[in-house]
Each structure stands twice: as C-alpha cells, then as structure tokens.
Amino acid sequence: MAAGVCGPAPLVFRLHEGSPGLVREVLLERGWVEYDEQEQEEGDWNLYWRASAFRNADYENILPWQRLNHHPKTVGITRKDCLARNLKRMKGTFGSVLYDFSPTAFILPNDYTKFLAEYTKNRLENRGRLVYWICKPVDLSRGRGIFIFEDIKDLTYDSTVIVQRYISDPLLISGYKFDLRVYVCVRSFHPLTIYIHQEGLVRFATEKYNLTSLGNLYAHLTNTSINKFGPFYTTDKERVGQGCKWTMSKFRCFLHNQGIDELPLWQRINSIVTLTLLTIAPSIPCSPNCLELLGFDILIDASFKPWLLEVNYSPALSLDCPADVTVKKGLLNDLFDLMGYKKVDRLRQRGYLRQRYRHPSYFSSQCLQTIGSPMLLFPRFMYESKPDNQSQGESSFHTLHDDNVGDSDDKVTLPLVETKQISSARKSKGGTTCSSCPSCALRPKPNPKSTTAGNRTRPPFSRISEHAPWPEARDTESALARQPLRLSPVGVWKLPTIQIQKYKPPTYPWHNISKENSKPPSRVGDFVLTFPFNEATFKASQSELDVKTAVQEVHRLMNRLASPHMHKVK
Ligand code: ADP
C-alpha cells in the first residue's frame, strides 16, 4: 500500500537487522513510524539506517524523499589498513608536518621488512628507552585481537594486521588512560561539508596505566567492550577508573578547572578530522541523499598532542552508562535535525499522488547523479548549550587528577525543520549529472510559513549571531580562552562553543541565497561546522574539491593558531 495518499504521510524509518535500538527509540520519540516490509512498499520509507554498508542497488534505486545513513566507499578511512595507507600517501604528497597525527604504522605481512628495519633502527637509536608497538587485526573492531609488545619475538599473527607505534606516554587522569570518541558527520562529500559534535565521550581504562604489565588490556585499552569484562568495571560509579565514561562537556570542564587552555587541542582535533577526510573525499561518489556519522578515536599524549587511532564506521550507539544516554541520544537528535526532515512527508505523499517517482535510476555507478537539491536541509533554531556539572581536580606533571565529577542528565529539546519542496525535486527529475556535482548545489526554496509551524521550542537559528551566549565563529583564540564558564539563568554551567575559525555563517532568510554562494549553517544543535571554515575552503569545496588548497588552508590556520600573536593576525 502506498502510504500517505489519503492523509499526511508520517515520516517512516527503516532499520536493517542489527541496527542500534537507540535509533528506533529516538525516531519513535520524534513521531516517526517504523517501516513494515510486509505491509509497505519499497518507496514507503524516508530514512534507511544500516550498521553495515549499503549495496549499490540501494544507492541506485533511491527516491527523492529517501536518505541513507552511509555514503558509498568510505572504507578508505574506516578500515585500519586503508587508513594507514591513505595517510601515508597524503604524508608523501603534503609532507609529514601536517600529516603527523597518526602513529607510524605497518601493514603486515606485506610491510614486514619495513617494520623490521624501523624496529631495529629504534632499538639502536633509543638506547635504554624502550619503544612499544601495538598489533591490531585489520578486520576486527572493539579491541578484539589487539596486543602490545616491546620485543619482536612476541609478535605473532595469522591474518592481516597493522603494527603501530604504541603511544606509551598517554595523558592520564588519576593514573588512568583514556581516549576521546569524537563524533563527526559528513553531511556531504560534494561539496565537502563536515560537522563535529560538541559532545562526545571520554572512555577510561579500568585499571591504572602501567608499562610493566603490557598484557593487562584493562590498563592499556579504552574500549568499553573490553573493559566491561574487567574486574573493576561498574557502570554505577562517578569516579574515574571504575568503568566510567565522561561526557565531553565534563572533560572540558575538568580541563578548565585544571587551568588548561583547551582551544589548541580542539583546533588540532578539528584539523585531524579535516585532513583525514580529505584523503578520501575526491574518491567518494556524489550521493546527496546520504550522510555519514563517523566516530574518530583520539588519544592525547602527555604533551597534549592528539593522535588519531582510528575512524569508526557506524560508531557504537549502545547505552552502557548515563554518559552514553546523554551523549548518544543528543547526538542522534542533532543528526536527524541535520537531515532536515519536516514533521510529515509531503514530498513522498505528493510523489505517490503524481506517480512520478517510482524507482527512477538516479545514480550511475561511476558518478551518482543528483536528485537536484541535496535532500539535507537546514534547520532553523538556536542551540541550547548543555548543562554540565562542575569538576575539581589537582594537576601534577602529566597525570591529572579527578576528584568527583557527577554526570549530567540534560535533555535536548527538538526543533521542527523544513523538508524540501516538491517543486525542486520535480525540477531535478531529469537527473543532472554531477561533474563532481556542480548541480548538487541546487538549494531548496524555503517555505516561509514553516518557520512558525509546530511546537518548536528553540528560537530560530538566524538569531544565533545576535543572541548567542557564546562567542561565534569570528572570535579569536584569545577571546575564547578568556571566556569564563557561565552560569545560565537556570543555574547550570555552560561551556563556550569550540569554534575558532573566522567563517561567517550564512545570512538568512534562505530564499535570498543563490545557489552559488549558499553556505551550510555553522551550527545545528551541537553539531558545529568545521569544514569549510573560511572563504578559501568554501571555494575549494565547490565544484571539484581542491584538496591542495584545502590542505594549505588547514596548514595556515594551524600556523596562525600556533602564533602567540594570533589575535593580531588578519
Ligand atoms: P578497535 O577498532 O579494535 O577499537 P583501536 O585502534 O581503536 O581498535 O584500538 C583500541 C584501543 O587500543 C584504543 O581505544 C586505545 O585505547 C588503544 N590503542 C590503539 N592504538 C593505540 C596506539 N597506537 N597507542 C596507544 N594506544 C592505542
């Protein structure tokens, strides 16, 4: 039965077997209904969510109102060996100064001789100072099959593995190792449009870090999937080292209380994300109905340098503790806002009425063709900063100490967003070809009425620049660094936005924006636009992605931020 012919068509989600239950929960809370294969037809869904990759046919048969949660061919960064290979290639092209954020890696057995040479060189050069390595099977995840070694005689493997230099001097909190799970949304590869979520997770090992016990995975790995089997794991404690995770807000609050200027750290992380995505962006087919949520795992070392450990395809959305609930629910809500659906799907409904959109083949295998305007529209609301509790601690050398930090249990209030108009879908029905997608730049015309429709609880997005409680994108590093934590009217601590690029968000209303200069919104919920971040990168991301210019701009930004007189630089 074609849904929605008689009345307003509700938004419908389709979950592939094994998809996270949280996706279902959040979408149901937002008023969506679940697709029923027995009752409904292929075209009766709006969002298809899979934890695994889609088939080519899924991309080929997509209808104008439908979206997929994966872009094709992102394996170039989400598989450990592909990531290592691609980063090495970029290092060769653009130099090791910028691409120095990933520990040296070798893919074995192929690179065994190279690894042996490096291992021997290190042994000779670092007399007395031990060098450690970590071995990871390339096709496993969640810490499975990983071990750490110092002596090559302990290296054994029976499948393809990467052997990576082990960051043996991680930053510790109260003696425990931790890493950051940073959530990244690639809303589009053509033009490249990257958002980083301000919330994220800090995942702790459950036993104290100790280089004399390399076999103790509970001290060396930070995966929850490993640590939850540890003797000290419990979800119910507030202190570090007992199986807890922190929200990123709590971590930032902690850094703030330690008197640490966090901004350079976040800028480096932003750059890591951009530089990593630039390695694959030109090779990703244009597919405007897709978006990708990635989990970047970042380890911070004792000198505060962030290292990229890996990029996770379909980052875990299971709920192990209160921090998971806060972060992942908020994340998914913001992600769905970024997709820009309206409450009901008039596009699908009218598509059925006109019977014009029955399985057209919009995409070719070489270059997926556009359906005209990207289906990902722009919500109009202002974010609400999330409350977080205050933390305390004392610092000592590179081990920071946490005293007692409570979990925040704040909730995101959802806005309504507009959906694309049928007219623009109709305009694009002919399937314009994308030469790296110039035609993908067609933008939806806004429906002025819809800004006032529904029970929107957040003020319009366009008001951010006038009333935002935090410094906007134009602020300088020093201005941000000076920003105190603020007390909101409801008495909760808020942290400033981590955004330092000088990039002006678009001026609303949308109908004044021509397709040539339309810019993505600088913020959607807690997703902050990190690429493009200035006019040069905006231009470089249009038509065919100009990777060289993009990399140079990241370099310039890094240099400018490293300068002590950064705020004076124009
Ligand atoms: P998986 O996909 O199995 O989770 P990761 O590469 O994320 O593999 O590694 C798992 C964990 O091992 C990380 O979360 C981190 O705690 C630790 N780890 C991985 N690589 C390194 C490294 N090079 N140096 C230090 N710790 C590492």
UniProtKB/TrEMBL annotation:
Any GO BP: microtubule cytoskeleton organization
Keyword terms: ATP-binding, Ligase, Nucleotide-binding
One Pfam family it belongs to: TTL
InterPro entries xref list: TTL/TTLL_fam
Gene3D superfamilies: ATP-grasp fold, B domain
Basic and acidic residues bias (residue ranges): 399-412
Keyword Nucleotide-binding (UniProt): yes
Disordered: region residues: 387-471
Biased composition (Polar residues): 388-398, 420-438
Protein's UniProt keywords contain ATP-binding: yes
GO molecular function: ATP binding; tubulin binding; tubulin-glutamic acid ligase activity
Source organism superkingdom: Eukaryota
Protein name in UniProt: Tubulin polyglutamylase TTLL2
Species of provenance: Aldrovandia affinis
